[in-house]
Amino acid sequence: MNLFLNWLEKLQHIDSRILYLLLAVVLAIPLVFNMSLPIPISPAAQGAYDAVEHIPSDKIAIVSVNWSSGTEAENQPQMDALIRHLFLRHKKFAILAFDPQGSKFGEDTAARLSKELGKTYGKDWMDFGFRPIENMVLTMQGMARDLPGTLVSDIHGTPLSAIPMMRGVKDIHDVGLIADITSIGTIQAWIAFIYGPYRTPLVYAPTAVMAPEAFNMLDAGQIKGMLIGMKGAAEYEKLLGRKDFATKATASLSTSHLLIIVMIILGNVGYISSRRRRRE
Amino acid sequence: MSHATWTVAIFEAILVFFILSKIFLARRGKSLYIRKIAGLNAIDEAVGRATEMGRPVLFSPGIYPLDISTLQALSILKHVTNMAAKYRTRVIVPTLDAVIQTMAEEISKEAYAAQGVPEQFNPDDIRFLSNNQFAYASGVVGILNREKVASSLLFGYFAAESLILAEAGHNVGAVQVAGTPAFMQIPFFLTTCDYTIIGDEFYAASAYISREPTLLGSLVGQDYAKAVIVLVILAGVITATLSQFGLLPHWMNWLHLFNPK
Amino acid sequence: MPILRHILYFLRPPVTGFLLHPSSPWYLWALGVVADFIIVGGIIFYLLKLIPNRGRKIFIGIVTFLCGAVYAVEFFIPSKAGKDANFLTPLTQQVDMVTTILYAFAVGLGVYSLISFHGKKIAKMRAGWPNSLAFFIAFLALMIAGFWKDAAPSKISANLYDLFFKVGVANPGATMFSIIGFYIISAAYRAFRIRSAEATLMLVAAFIVMLGQVPIGAFLTHQIPNHGVWGFFRFENLSYWILRVPNMAAQRGVSFGVEIGALAMSLRLWLSLERGSFFEQEL
User: Fold this and answer.
1) CATH value at residue A223
2) What is this structure's pTM?
3) Helix (H) or strand (E) holding A87
4) Domains in chain A: how many in total?
5) How far apart are the C-alpha atoms of A27 and C188, rounded to whole Å?
6) Element (H, E) at A216
7) Could you report the per-residue pLDDT of B111-161, keeping only the tens digit for each?
8) How distant is the Cα of C125 from the closest Cα of chain A, in angstroms?
C-alpha cells in the first residue's frame, strides 16, 4: 500500500521533459493520421460569416493585417478563410497592414488565393501595403474622411485613381466591412475611430488568448463577429464547406487540451495523496 | 468614441474632481491609509535574496514604448536600483525600446551615484535587445540562463512573451514578482510567478513604495472614482430592470444619455 | 519624406520654411534641414540655457500642459455635424506627426546601441563573442538583401530576401511563440492544485472552457439535445456562457480599475503633479 501511495505522490513531480514529449506526440498523431472531429459553429464565428455575406455590392471591404510570424499558426488560417470568402462572394477588398511582416503575409496570401480563384489585382482586390503603427490613429482618422487622400497609392506605388476598384471610393462610407486580423490590440482603435463615429461593421480575428477580452465588444455590438484563434478559422472553413489546415489542426488542439486536463488531474491526485499522508 | 458627449464630459469631470481633490488634500498633510499589497512587499525580499546569493536581479519594463505603463515600471525600477545599489547588487535591465533603454540607464546611473558607488554601474547591464517581441523574449531567456539570475521582476505591459519569460525564470530557480495592466497575461503570471500584482495595484505601486502624499492622494481619489462608477452601474441595473418590466415611466429612463450619439 | 517636407514647410523655420518649396530637390532639403537644425536648435538651446534651473521646471510644466490641453480640449469639444472632427482636430494631427517623427529617431538609437554592445564584446573578446559576430553577420546579410531587393529587383534578390526573412525572422518568431504551448502544460500542471474551494471552482471552470473551445468537448456532449434547458449543459454552450457572463463581468471590473489608474497617472503627468523617477530631478 505504501508503495502505491509513494507512486501516487510522485505524480505531482513529473519531469517537464516528459510532459513536453507527451505534448509533442499528441500534437503530431492527429496530423499524421489525418484525424478530424465534427466542429460546432459558435455564434461569434457565425456573426463574422454573416457580416461578410451582407457587405453591400457597391462597397469595398478592408482586411487589416496586423500580425507577425509568431502568430502565423492562428492568424494565417483566419486570413485564408476570410479572403477566400470575400473572393467567393465577389466582394472587393483592400489589404491594409500596420505590421511590416503582416503586409508581406497579407500580400502573399491574397496573391495565392487570387491565382487559385481566377481573380484580378486592381479589379477584385488591391493592397495598400504597410503603414507604420505609430501613424495608425492618424491613418484611420484620415481615411475615414478622405480615403484616397490619406492612403494615396497601393503597395506598388500606383495612385489609387488608377486602380479600377478604387474609383468612386471616397471615404469610410464606401467601406462595407473592416476585418481586423491581429495579434496586437488594434481593435480598440478601430472601434474608437471608425465604428464609434461611422458605425462601419467590424469583424475581429484575434489570437485565442486575446478573445476573452473581446466578448465585451461582441456583447455591446461593436464587433459583428469574431474568429477565436485557430478554432474560429476551422468554424469559418466549415461554413465555407472546406477542410483546410485549421480544420485538420483542431484535432491536435483537442488531444493537447485533453492531455493538459489529464496531467492536471494526475498532479492533483498526487497532491491529495501527499496531503492525506501528511495528515496521518 | 473620439469626441465626448455632454454626459461623458460631466462624468469625467466628476472622476477628475475626486482624484484632484484627494491629491490636494493629501498635500495639505492629511494622512491616508493604504492596504498591504503582498506583491509589492515582495520586491524588497527579491532584491535581498539576490544580494544573499551574490547573483543579479533581472528587471524587465515590458514591451511597450514610452507610455503610462512603462513610466510606472520605470518608477518601480528606480526603487529597485536604489535598493540594489545600496547592497552592491547588479540589476540587469533588458529593454525592447531604445528610448526606454536610455531612461533606464539614467535611473541606474543615478542610483549608484546616490549610494556613492558610481563605478559599480555597468552600462552593459542596461541592454536594448531588439524591438521584435519574440527576439526580445529569446534574449531575456538567454540572459536568465547565462547570468543565473536570482530574482526576476517583470513590471510593465506584456503580451504573449509573458509566459516565456516567467517560465524561463522559474526554470532557473529565480524568485519572480510580476505586475502588469495587461489583463490577459495575468493568468500566465499567476501560474508561474511567486507574487503577482493584478490590475490597478500596478498603478498603485509607486504610491505604495514611496508613500509620497501626492501619489497616495491620487490612489484614494481613484477609489472614490471607482465608487462613483459602481453607483452608476447599480443605478443603471435597477433602471434597466424596472424598464424591462414596464415599471418605470419612459422619461425616467436616463440610460440613453450614455449612448455615444 | 513628403510628410516631413510638409511639416517643415508648414512650421516656417528659417531655411526650409521660407527658402524651399515641397517640390525642391532632395539635396537642397537635406542642406536646409541641417541648417534649420543648427539655427533653430541653437536658438532654442541658448534660450533654454538662459532660464534658471527652477524656471526650467516651470517652463517644461507649461509646455506639457499646453500640449496635453490640445488633446483634452479637442476631445471635449463636440464634433461638427456629419464629421468626426472639430476645429482643433487638424492641430492634434500635426502634433501626432511631430511625435511620430521624434520617435523615428529612436530607430537609429537602437541600432547604435546594438552595434556598440556587440562591437565592444568582439573587440575585447569577452565570453560569448562568437554570438556577437553572428549578430553582425545576420544584421548585414538581411540589410544587404533588403537593399538589393529594392534597388535592383530580380528573381535572385527577391528569393534571397525571402529566404533570409523566412529563416532569420519568420520561423524563429513562430518557434518562440510555439514554445508557449509547451510552457503552458508545465505551468498548468505545476500550478493547478485543489488547495481551496475557490481553486477547485476555477479548475472546474477551466476544464469546461478548455473542452468547450475544441471539437472533442462538443463530441463528448453531442448526445445532449442542443435546444431547451438541457442544451445549456453542452460543453460548447457552457463554455460560451462562462466567457460571455462571469468572464466578461470580471474583465469589466478589472478594466475599470486599470483605466481609472491610467486616468489618474495621466492627470498627474499632464498637470506636472507626478513624483518619483525623473519628475523630481534637477535640470
Assistant:
1) 3.40.50
2) 0.85
3) helix A72-88
4) 1
5) 17
6) helix A211-220
7) 999 889 899 899 989 999 988 889 999 999 999 999 999 999 999 999 889
8) 33
ipTM over 0.85: no
Among the listed residues A110, A123, A57, the one whose alpha carbon sits nearest the alpha carbon of residue A81: A110
Between A144 and A6, name the one with better pLDDT. Answer: A144
Assess if CATH 2.40.160 describes domain B38-210: no
> Would you list the domain boundaries of chain B?
6-31+214-258, 38-210
Chain B: residue nearest A195 by CA? B1
Handedness of CA A127, A130, A135, A136 (dihedral sign): positive
CA closest to B171 among chain A residues: A16
Q: Which domain holds residue A210?
A: 43-249
DSSP state of A163: S
Q: Under an 8 A CB cutoff, do B134 and A141 touch?
A: no
Q: At what angle do helices A43-53 and A72-88 cross, to 10 degrees?
A: 40
Compute the distance between CA of residue C172 and CA of residue C207 in angstroms, rounded to an integer: 31
**Residue A83 amino acid letter:** I
The residue among A257, A258, A276 with the most chain C CBs within 10 A of its CB, best to mutate, is A257
| Residue A98 lies inside a defined structural domain of this protein | yes
Listed in sequence order, the DSSP H helices in chain C are 2-11, 26-36, 42-50, 53-76, 89-123, 129-151, 155-164, 171-191, 197-212, 215-220, 235-244, 246-270
Chain C residues touching B7 at Cβ < 8 A: none
Say if the Cβ atoms of A250 and C214 lie within 8 Å.
Answer: yes
Tell me the average confidence (pLDDT) per consecutive run of 10 residues in chain C, 283 residues long.
68 75 81 84 84 81 88 84 75 77 75 89 90 92 90 89 87 90 93 89 92 88 86 89 89 87 89 70 47
Partners of B3 on chain C (C-beta within 8 Å) are 74-79, 84, 86
